Protein 1
Amino acid sequence: MTDYRAGKKLRLKHRTDITRAFDHGVKRSDGFMTLIAVATPAGGRGRFAVLVSRRHGGAVQRNRIKRLCREGFRL
């Protein structure tokens, strides 16, 4: 059986990395989602963090949104 999860190497885990993305990233938004992108060094692998606000529902709904976003990024 193949493991399709997005591994921890793909995630931004440190507060400093996430803060840098918010401060220096390019933001694009529609009514439902905001994406923030930061350029990676040449040859670097893209990484991501998923943050979902409470206005999208309780913890169960927010965790589902995060799982779906991670899966989309991984694929």
Note: DSSP finds two helices and two strands in the chain.
Protein 2
Amino acid sequence: MELNDIILHTYPWWEMQRVRELSFRAKAPEQRLSNVWHHAPGLVDHKYRGVTTPNCDTLYSGTWLDLDEGPILIEVPASDLPYWSIAVMDLNTDNIDILGSRYADSGSLLVCGPGYRGPISSGCRHVRSASKVVWLLARYLIGSDTLLAQAEALRRAVTLTRFKNDGSPSGTTPCPARLPLIAATRKNAQNFWQIIRTTLDEDGTLSGTFDSPLYKGIQKIWPPGVGDWNDLMPDAQQRFTEAFDRVLAQVTANNSGNMQTRGQWRYPGKDIGRFGENRLYRAEVSLWGLGALPTSEVMYVSAVADAQGELFQGSNQYKFRIPTEGMPAEEFWSLTMYEVDPHGGMYFTENSLKRYAIGDRTDGLNKNSDGSVDIFISHAQPHELSEITNWLPAPSGVFRLMIRLYAPTEAFQKGEISPPKIERLLAQVT
């Protein structure tokens, strides 16, 4: 198997470990624990540079499970919160299961590691991960004081309990990372090699779950006993660096063809969230949408250009009209503004309103006589008061927009309905 293929396959591990390290970095050493929920204090803002394409719809909670010493049982109490979900993701970035308000039997789930062979209680819903390290990413709907209170109460009531290898609960879950975490930096072959080395050392069974050519390739590039990049021969370092640069350019280009384009809008490929053998798309999404859910749960629809095909620029003014009948989502929806960093990551942009998105829970929007709503998009604040009320601030330069539709309608999933167009109104708003 070619070196490029090996790097492409392991690339999502790198992005997962980057977020894992970021989630622990700001904490004191005694607080850098797996198997313990870490609750984001509130909505993130323009300073946040963790997970790319963050949302304004939900409170986040997350944890990294370490299944080395046995399974972890997730238990969720009953709640009146209209929407919540807990995505269970292995290091390959697959959503191996989802707990949530939309699904029956979401009160508990036993998450087992790849090597667990102990007993499982009859009737206990369980899932087996391909990796010993598992990411739980929870989303709890907010948008009002009542929803916020419900979300806070629910997320702090979700429990994690470790089970021993004999199938009995141990009652304790926290544990420190078994190996030191390394900060992941982009465009650095040495950093990539070192993080994958640490990943394989932490979870020796991970590469063994793949087909023989891939397994042998991984063992050749990261041979047992070679623990440091500097222990590689210079020619091996050179070959790896050249291959890494090629793969990074391929992933960053994001032109694999998995995304579907309908008019202005780009739709996710059908494999998102559960990628199967689609390795390039898996790597692409790990760069620009790590933690993405499958389309049955939410559809992320993005746009980068206006109806004339010109890239969105904050110096222009645009209009997005929400139709009278609303957007095709059975749960909720939002339109979010992103600036793009040099590596393709998408994050909120600073603005005077501290508004990063508009959605079905945005209060006080002015409506047209037919019930439709016009959203005005520009960097400079509009002059008309009615437009300021409905203003979605943009960065001064290039930007991107993303619509999230939670529980999209069947017609939307089939492509029978498209989002409204983004219409350019004025140039050089000052």
Note: The chain has a mean pLDDT of 90.
Protein 3
Amino acid sequence: MGKAHGLGELPNLGPKSQAMLAAAGIASLEQLRRLGSVRAYRLVKASGANASLNLLWALEGALTGQPWKEVAREHRLSLLLALEAHEGDA
């Protein structure tokens, strides 16, 4: 799979992640930035993809330039709280 509208140039997002984003209707870097990692993750999950929380860490890392493992270690709680807050809004 080729680089889709800049998404392939981001760290942490391989072909499977890019395919899940595309299936959720997220086709550009600008769109991903507008949505943010939590909303993008929720859209991927809502599309029926079997995405783990590693995708959330990868999305946040892609947007901030951090390795996903660092995001998982340092920002796990804040991302999980944000995800819970967004799920409460649904």
Note: The helical segments are 15-23, 29-46, 53-64, 68-74, 76-89.
